[in-house]
Design a protein that fits this description.
Layout: H1 14-38, H2 42-65, H3 70-87
Helix pairs in contact: 1-2, 1-3
């Protein structure tokens, strides 16, 4: 699966960095989406939800294509952790 040419980078050490950044973005967008929902901004929340899920699918897709890359697992978990920390 080619997504911005990332499939060609599957052997690069940059892939865990991309997964890390993607997961930080997902958690951030999720937090903002919940805030929008609580304020009654359904259209903005739905739009953010679209991008949130698109980024998440990219990250999880890269992990599934590179199951032997433990760095991707750690990057996903680290991105989730840092995203939650930064959202507070």
């Amino acid at each position: 699966m080619f997504f911005f040419g990332v499939a060609a980078m599957s052997t690069w050490p940059i892939l865990p960095v991309l997964v890390f950044v993607a997961e930080i973005c997902v958690v951030t967008l999720s937090t903002i989406r919940i805030i929008f929902l609580s304020r009654g901004m359904q259209v903005a929340a739905a739009t953010l939800g679209f991008f949130e899920v698109s980024i998440w699918l990219f990250a999880i897709g890269q992990i599934m294509q590179n199951l032997d890359n433990i760095g991707c697992y750690l990057a996903f978990a680290g991105g989730f952790t840092l995203g939650n920390y930064l959202a507070c």
